[in-house]
Amino acid sequence: MFEIKHTLCPSCSVGCGINVILDGEEIVGTFPYKRHPVNAGKNCLNGRNSIDCFKNKFENVDLTNSIADASNEIKSANASDVSVICSGNCSVEDIAAIKDFAESNGFNIGFYANDLKNFEDVASYDEIANASKVFVIGDLLYENPLIGRRIVHAKQNDAKIYALSKNENAVTFNIADEISNSSVQEFLDKFKGEIDDSSVVVFNYVDEAGDLDKIESLNCKALPVFSKPNTKGALDIIDSKSADEMVELFDNTKLLLVFNDDVVDEFDYDFTKISKIITFACCENDTTKISNIVVPVKTWLEQDGSFVNAMGEVQNFNCVIGSDNLGIIEVIGELNK
Amino acid sequence: MADDLKIVGLLCNWCCYGGADTAGTARMQYSPNIRIIRVMCSGRINPSMIFKAFQEGADGVFVGGCHIGDCHYDAGNYKWSRRSKIVEDILEEFGIEKERFRHEWISASEGEKFQRTMEEFHKTLSKLGPLELK
Amino acid sequence: MSYVLAKSQNNEIHEAGECGGAVTSILKYLLDEGLVDGVLALSPQDDVYDAFPVFITDSQDLLKTAGSYHCAPTMIGDLVQKYFFDKKVAFTVKPCDMRAVEELIVRHKINKDNIYMIGLNCGGTVSPVSGREMIDLFYEANPDDVISEEIDKGQFIIELADGSEEAVKIHDLENEGYGRRKNCQRCDVKIPRKANIACGNWGAEDGWTFIEINDEKGQELIDGAKKAGILETKSPSEPAVEGRSKVENIMIKMAKKNQDATYPLVSEMDEWSRCISCYACRDICPICWCFENCELNKPYFKDEANIPPLPIAFQGVRLSHMSFSCVDCGQCDDVCPMDIPVSLIFDKLQKKYYNRTGYVAGVLDDIKPPLYSPEKTEL
After folding, report:
1. Which pLDDT tens digit goes with each residue over C309-324?
2. Does chain C reach chain B with at least 3 CB pairs under 8 Å?
3. Which of residues 59-88 of B touch C (CB under 8 A)?
4. Which chain C residue lies closest to A16 (C-alpha atoms)?
């Protein structure tokens, strides 16, 4: 039967609301969630396409067998050779379970947050819209449009916009007063004198860890925007690793357990060096393609949970459709048996 | 500069294309800026084709169809004629002068009309200069 | 065409519904008699600002859809087209919903015989997020305490949980950039006369719904509901009919005034420079029905390298496809992540088309946009 249900968009850490349209047991489309305070019914293309993940679920995978195989592999491995990769794609509850699973079994745990980190006190979206100067690092209008919209609002409120992007044709440049293609460090140094307490720095990448300290030491609020829906929530639970530390972890791993992440896409690393890879994933990605065992898990549409968005708001989402698969918590329960 | 002007011409196979042919075989002189695309009927021309031509750098677009009543497919040129009004309305909105878009009914025997129209259109466009879209 | 005043004979519905609860009663009649497979009606979700269409097959569930929701600017046309093509279904329509449905009917995307359209007179809708902001700013109330809202006599009225009411003039709200959505401010179709019936409180006595019966199907509906004992009707008085048309005319006059004030040249709008080619405007448009076959998806127009796109190669193409059928529902404005006032140019082109042809999208009788007509006429 036709039904519309509320959920959250899992495409990035902005935390937009989105409605999905169900026709019987199928998710057939999206519908604007105009009441949602973050995005007022506006969703970018990634957001509206996020339901494709549900449409492209694994078929012809025997759940019981794959869990049994995974369990055998894990039990026969040496705990110190096993690494668990956690992801910002998992809900807060899943991450807590993954952490617990890794720690109680003595496995290594790896979590990569694109070299970004958690800030104590971040700017809210409204603070961006009301800032007098906005320093934008990354093409946020294009990459995180619903934060980009707040930057547009700031511009309409006569704020001065300073934009930095590696892309010469960044959309953000079109509304900016000052544009730059330099490194983050040069950008910050150049405009350091203009940053005051009514400014906001909003960024979705940095070149190196030092940039983060630099931003943190500024006399203004900052907002790191992550590429995954719950990176912020994950950072509250697990310490992130740098890219180098992740590679080091891969080097010392014989059995890699990847939870809802695509490490192959993210790291320039020869994963064939790792003897066994087991992925727990909702739908096919580059990592599942090279994995020895794939355990299908529930998409965010099929379970309750919560994500923490970029400005630190915990947002709950409810299961909108039934599933034959297990959630990560349930899979871990099976593995622990 | 006038020699660099690019004109895209969408001509109906049954009449205006023949008109251009007549002009050619009779060795009538007209400015060589037009790039002719033959279509089977002016009625199959979508407004988006005109926009695409402008987007790709045309300075003017010309459409030639059969005289009203002479359509090979009965009513194609009526359809085009109604559609052309929409094109005019839309071009105006996007800052493209309406003179840059022209359409005429030219039969296969009217080589002379084709020549005259091309000369006029070229003159108009020369005055306007190259199109700058933003 | 005729007028009646109607009142629900069902106490529960009369209590929960707006005015006389006639709309809910008629929907109940349709379901109970098995005239439709189901009913699509707005139902509030988390609060009064959050409503969307729900599909109801059991008339017991209708009660939760009773009442009016001005803060839920939804569109029903594309839903009916995509998910209910072969079903018999009744649904409520604002004038823009009705116009979209009519445009889809002439495109053979909705089967007229399968649907019942229950029209609701509409003075405009308010976007939920900015609506809450507005209540916070202009009213002495917490937006969370609002249990219902109403647009009446040029005022936006909120009712609070303790029964008290507060009203502010819409004109004042709109001067400050709040109030009704921009497209509603310039909309001059206030009564959905292509729906089978058009219901509302204009000209109605307290506790009654004023209904304009637009066609035979509408008349059968009222007669049937009366016979089934769920609806009571009486003739409206002469002054009531006049009062109603007076309200309509004032609304239309206000809209025309706003029309004169808006509409910039597309090329003068700098908003296009922030377009991110997300296609949200196209995908939400009830008139755009080509979906993946859209010309903008063809390799000769799809351009992922140049963002923002050249307006003429994006909106220009869409304008040429359907601007003459634009019903000015404002959905494209609502979903644009970059807050570009897209509907403005589509409505502008529709008005230009009207000036050339006299064609108003979705309100004329069985006429296709003249662009599609096989007739041998020039403009």
Report:
1. 999 999 999 999 999 9
2. yes
3. 68, 75, 78-79, 81-83, 85-87
4. C337
> Which residue in B has a C-alpha nearest to residue C310's C-alpha?
B134
For chain C, list the contacting chains (3+ Cβ pairs, <8 Å). A, B
Averaged pLDDT for residues C168-190:
94
Q: Return all residues near C151 (Cβ < 8 A) that are at least 6 apart.
A: C70, C123, C124, C157, C170, C180
User: In a mutagenesis test of the A interface, which of C338, C339, C342 is the best target, namely the one with the most A β-carbons within 10 Å?
Assistant: C338
- Does residue C137 belong to the interface with chain A, where contact is any CB pair within 8 Å? no
Model pLDDT for residues B54-107, shown as the tens digit of each residue: 999 999 999 999 999 999 999 999 999 999 999 999 999 999 999 999 999 999
pLDDT digits (tens, 9 = 90+) for A74-88: 999 999 999 999 999
pLDDT in tens, B98-120: 999 999 999 999 999 999 999 99
Question: Which residues of A fall below an 8 Å CB-CB distance to C?
Answer: 1-4, 6, 19, 21, 23, 28-29, 31-32, 34-37, 39-45, 48, 141-142, 145-146, 148-149, 152-153, 169, 171, 174-175
Measured CA distances, C30 to C24, C68, C199 (Å): 10, 20, 16
Write the DSSP string, C350-365.
HHHHHHHH---TTTSS
Nearest CA to A173 among A147, A136, A214? A136
SS3 label, residue A302: helix
Average pLDDT over residues C141-159: 90
Closest CA to A48 of C337, C330, C46: C337
For residues C135 and C176, give the distance between their C-alpha atoms in angstroms, rounded to a whole number: 13
- Nearest CA-CA distance, residue A24 and chain C, Å: 11
Q: Which residue of B has its CA nearest to C346?
A: B90
Residue C205: both structure tokens together: 């006595």
| Nearest neighbour of C319 by CB, restricted to B83, B85, B90 | B90
Q: Does A149 sit within 8 Å of C52, measured CB to CB?
A: no
Per-residue buried b or exposed e for A137-159, using 16+ beta carbons within 10 Å of the residue's own CB: bbbbbbbbbbbbbbbbbbbeeeb
Judge: A152–C278 Cβ closer than 8 Å, yes or no: no
Rounded to whole angstroms, how far apart are CA atoms B109 and B66? 11
pLDDT for C34-91, tens place per residue?
A: 999 999 999 999 999 999 999 999 999 999 988 888 999 999 999 999 999 999 999 9
Residues, chain A? 337
Contact present, A229 and A8 (Cβ < 8 Å): yes
